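pipeline/complex-builder :: batch 7 item 3
reading input block
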Amino acid sequence: MANEGRQVVIPGQVLGDISAFRPGRGTFVENKKIYAERLGVLNIQDTFIHIIPLKGRYEAVVGDFVIGVVEEASTSNWMVDINAPYPALLHVHEVPWEIEFADTEKYLNTGDTILAKVLSVDESKKLQITLNDRNLFKLKGGHLIEFEPSMYRRIMGKKYSMIEIIQKYTRCRIKVGKNGRIWIDGDAEGIHKVLQAISKIESEAITFGLTDRIEEFLKKDAKDVR
Amino acid sequence: MTIVPIIKRDYITKLAEEGKRIDGRDFNHYRKIEIETNVVNKAEGSARVKIGNTQVLCGIKMDIGEPFPDTPKTGVMSTAAEFIPMASPDFESGPPREDAIELARVVDRGVRESQVIQLDKLCITPAEKVWLVFIDIHILDYDGNLFDAASLAALAALLTTKVPVSRFLKELSEKDRASWQERLLELYTIPGVDEVPFGVDEADPKPIKNFPLPMSEPPVSCTAVKINDFVFFDPCFDEEVIADVRLTVATDHKGDIRAMQKGRSGSFSKEEIQKVIKGALDNGQEIRKKLYHSIGK
Amino acid sequence: MKSDMELITSEGKRRDGRSPEDIRKIKIEAGVLHRADGSCYLEWGGNKVLAAVYGPREAVPRHTQNPLRAIVQARYNMAAFSVEDRKRPGPDRRSVEISKVISEALERVVLTEQFPRASIDVNIEVLDAEAGTRCAGLTAAAVALIDAGIPMRDIPVACAAGKIGGQVVLDLGKEEDNFGDADLPIAISPRTGEVLLLQMDGHLTLDEFNQAFDLAVKGCHIVSEIQKKAIMHKYQSAAAEVQE
């Protein structure tokens, strides 16, 4: 993608006319004009205008992999914080274990961390998540950190290139939730390196070649360790 | 309530066993401390203190009022702290709760019991009029260790406070002025104090100028927490919320202990307490330097 | 005696040297707090204001929830040390009223229908007060909302006009507020011109009101530009990071 066009927009800013463009996420239409509704980066693909947010809570989308922290266990479900405006419900039918009535706490309890998938988002934004899929489970050990959900793509890199490089050089197991949470498992040195790399990605305003820079950084660090 | 994930808690303790902390600090080290004074024009003195991401603002207001009957020649000080909802998603509006009251009282004791403010120099007319000193602590951003940030902000604010004589002059009768003048001259001729800190017109001597709040050497507070037998100074939020027990130790420039407060339901051994005192003395020296530097000394 | 104070000379010079249509100096910084979802620090003349936003998050207690949209709850608070005579901590009737009118003004521009049952909490702390704190507070709150990534129709902005010594002037200063003839704080949506907040006290003729209103709107547009600059300053460089 070209460098120009990476423009910051703010609420109320005019982005175009509906005779020429189609309004997408993060925009609204008033008197045939398209406006930005939130702080973000303008993205125009052909005639389609949308805003990639720079800040804000995670907006759940069905199918997203998220990292949740259990807030509360009740008789037939759990309430799970997924960094969205609302807690998500995890029903006993949506876990891979046979759970007897009121036995939920034995499996998941307050403070437990899970890798889950968004199952549904209804009209009133009520959220449900599930553990019934491949690669979904309760996380054990390791460390959990948070990031701006809008940085997700940057942290993953093109075709997961960034995250693969970080895993390779740190020998850590990493799970990135779309909801702005990262779980890292490895030795303390490796985890520390991952944290440094993530904060470098978050803070460095580099348009191109960030993946290479991060690789350089990790390589150099690896030598220092030896 | 913010729920700390168990894996984060476990990670903090696992790191501790390797002698490490989540932000890479040594057990005894503080985060970066920044002190900025005179940040509020309307206050008689003010300071904003940052310890890492924790941010506290303290403002001093003064007024004239009646002394307590049992201390007719002594000024009056009071301390209040507000845990405003701005500072944390877990703080709620409403009257101060026990955490805020404990914090205010610990800061208050650190100042009061060490006679940091020379309250005896704040008497205008015995049994009638004395200066009142209000210390108000505003928590702006909570990332752990409010005790140290709040007490440091209070000290920096007090050390830059000017008694607002000119504003209150009209409220003082001739008798008040004469009485106060007498007391000030008496007090400021004590040996070692060579500077009369208020404006004296030699032809017509009367206290008219604002003058610095009379202060003594302040003790500096240092706080440590214990997590699974490991003692960390200056806990960040993640460490503080999982800590079993907390100890604040205020030490003076001579190396003596001037105030202590243990908090939380965990416990310390005598050896651990001594360890905290040692760390408080070491860190206190450094923080004292920063405090003096911030007020230009 | 003070009420006879000359607030404005016959040449139109005000006590702080401003001419009738001059606004005080304004400084805005976005994103200054760590815990809050969005924040803003603002200096406006002698006013110093901090605003912090939390949310959208599930509104508690539950009975405050609206099943169709989010509620916007502003809380305006003056620090005890922000005024000449120490203010007792905690809400008084004045701050409750100001909180209410600011909440209502902000609710009009926030796209609340996107977050049913949620609450968007806006905390405004006045740290140093010198006339016009509600305008300063609302202006800071708007920037904090943007910084929190809250979807909005526009960036609301506030400014006051008033009357001193028989003349209509912009943005009353300290003595002008205390001893002037009228004060007219307004908040608008600068894009549409909609009036979001309006209060007035004192005495104005219809002509004077029209003149003061237009002047206040003009002031709002000046402040609006400073708001936008502050946001851009914070986020322009961050933009490059978002997507490859």
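note: The first strand of chain A starts at residue 8 and ends at 9.
queue -> next item
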